[in-house]
Design the sequence.
């Protein structure tokens, strides 16, 4: 009973199937990495649009803040001058009132003293009103300073967001480049595939020659 002889076409078929499997695997891997890279690139473009919008908004806000700070600084300077003038006027009015009342008390009778006290109270009321105006001016100055501080904090926050987005975009660019590099087989992989194809071709030649 002779040994079972396998037809040569069977070996050729097996070798061809193996080669096709290798090619399909490489093509599938390339398609997979290419799809990931394309998706990441689309997300990067969307992020760049958002980043450009944030950057533009930050620049506009910075310009507006610079103008507002300039106007606020001028307003604060004017308010401080007004406060200083009002404070000086208040002190002078109080001193004049006290000096005037003291000098008159010594020469007036009781009825005139009562009238003088009423006049002094009116001066005190005016001085109190003046003090209220001073406090209002100071409150406005402090409010302007607080708004300027808050605006500066907002701009700094936007700049932090821009820096974070730029760092994320750079990382995504590196990842996309790595994926696209993976999509291009290295010299070693090409050499390995070529070696297997050469072996397959040699095997087919041997089988055909049998």
Sequence:
């Amino acid at each position: 009973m002779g040994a079972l002889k396998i037809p040569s076409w069977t070996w050729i078929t097996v070798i061809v199937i193996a080669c096709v499997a290798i090619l399909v695997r490489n093509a599938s891997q390339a398609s997979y990495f290419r799809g990931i890279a394309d998706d990441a690139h689309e997300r990067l473009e969307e992020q760049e649009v958002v980043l450009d919008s944030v950057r533009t908004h930050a620049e506009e806000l910075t310009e507006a803040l610079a103008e507002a700070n300039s106007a606020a600084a001028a307003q604060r300077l004017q308010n401080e001058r007004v406060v200083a003038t009002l404070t000086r006027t208040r002190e002078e009015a109080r001193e004049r009132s006290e000096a005037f009342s003291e000098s008159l008390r010594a020469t007036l009778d009781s009825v005139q003293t009562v009238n003088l006290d009423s006049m002094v109270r009116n001066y005190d009321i005016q001085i109190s009103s003046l003090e209220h105006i001073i406090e209002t001016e100071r409150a406005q100055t402090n409010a302007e300073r607080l708004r300027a501080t808050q605006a500066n904090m907002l701009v700094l926050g936007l700049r932090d967001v821009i820096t974070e987005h730029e760092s994320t975009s750079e990382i995504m660019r590196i990842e996309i480049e790595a994926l696209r590099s993976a999509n291009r087989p290295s010299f070693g992989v090409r050499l390995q595939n070529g070696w297997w194809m050469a072996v397959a071709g040699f095997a087919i030649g041997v089988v055909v020659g049998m």
Summary: The chain has a mean pLDDT of 69. Residues 8-105 form the longest helix (98 residues). The helical segments are 8-105, 110-183, 187-209. The chain has three helices and no strands.
